[in-house]
Amino acid sequence: MLVPSVGVTLPDPVGRLRPAGVLEREVMTEGSLPRAEIDVWMARLAAGERETFTRVFEALWPRVFGLCRATLGNDADAADAAQQAMMKLMERAADYDPNRPALPWALAIAAWECRSALRRRTRSREVASEPESDLSTSQAGDPESELVRRDLVRRALDAMNELSDGDRATLAATFFDEPTEVAGATLRKRRERAIDRLRAAMRRLYGLD
Amino acid sequence: MASTDPRSPSDVPIDPADPRSPLAHEAERRARRVYELARIRRAVLAASPILALATVAALVSPSPTRVVPFALLSFGAAALMVWQSRSMSRAALVGMLAGTVPLALSLAANQWHACGPHGCASHGFSSFCAPACAVGGLVAGLGVGLASPRTRGAAPFWIGASGLAWGVGALGCACVGAVGVVGLAVGLLAGVMPAWSVRTARA
Question: What pLDDT shows up at residue A19?
């Protein structure tokens, strides 16, 4: 769960809604590389070691694709968004700060790309005709709850976009239980503030709390 | 009799989230290309100050055409270094900064001599240029020596930084021909070698 107190649920890296503890355990172990190693390989790729490219890609792809699949609701859109996200990621790879964890950084870029894809879809008015075609094959089974879930995800991403980079990173770290630069009381205080601001953004945008 | 699955393993569709899926392979190919293009863009941008220095040198120098080959050489080398890796990017930065010392000294010496307090000389040759290049090279070499890492595998850094310092310095020293460029190289070697010897002995 991204922000339990706000009541917004974001999907897990393989596209399913899970309780927070289960999700965190799965994210910790999923993929071919542990997250500490992803940080190391990403840092080496940022430094120009091309031989780490495939390992980084293979570690990030399932997570990025899972996020896009869960956000967009179907594999076709998820494939486009995930490809775009991976291209953006690798385009910015040289800017990666080795002192920061790689996974929240990567997922923040992927979330942004998913949000852009959602926006494009909304603009092109394809959303109205989508429920019949997509929801019949969705994972949730119940089309109505699937629609509600997607709407919540979209709103959560929109609200996240209203926040600063720091707040987004704090929330991403909370969501994925990622080690951060700070700990203890400072982290708790940052998290509280980020959640407050997310709540305010949700209220401002949708009148929700 | 063992039950047989009519589908071979290759018939089972691979989840697109799997890194071995065709979609992932295509995405990896594209991402790799974008990664390299982004690095090339950064490299060209990072090496562009050399073009600015070359423009200044060409405007100030009495023989601007001599600047061109060194400008192209230095720009290409710097871009290649930045593209290659982060440690070589640092070497490029060190080389560029170190090279500005002989460049500035040679251009200043040339200007001072050619347009001194008693008016401008009719020719561009400056007798101060060659010594200025040598002294500038010495200072640049010491700078490279101080800024280079103290690790055993740092030879590419030393070579890259020294070479680029020579190329950038030559933008100014080329105006006096081979004497200036060779003087710069001698000064640079004289500055780099002591630091190189000390550090390799310690490593």
Answer: 40
Within 10 Å of residue A29's Cβ, how many Cβ atoms? 9
pLDDT tens digits along A174-198: 766 666 667 778 888 888 888 888 8
Which of A57, A75, A86 lies closest to B16 in CB terms? Answer: A75
Which residue, chain included where needed, has tokens 């699949």? A69
Residue A7 pLDDT more than 50? no
* Residue B30 counted as domain residue: no
Q: Give the Cα separation of A114 and A80 in Å (integer).
A: 9
Q: What amino acid is encoded at B87 in this protein?
A: S
What predicted TM-score, i.e. pTM, was given to this entire model? 0.66
pLDDT of residue A10: 43
Q: Are B138 and B187 in contact (CB under 8 A)?
A: yes
> What is the amino acid identity at position B22?
P
Q: Does A181 touch chain B (CB under 8 A)?
A: no
Distances (CA, A) of A120 to A113, A125, A195: 11, 9, 27
B122/chain A closest Cα distance in angstroms: 51
Structural domain harbouring B130: 48-202
Assess if residue B4 is contained within a domain.
Answer: no
- Residue B127 CA to residue B7 CA, distance in Å, equals 85
Number of domains in chain B: 1
How many C-beta atoms lie closer than 10 Å to residue A17's C-beta?
17
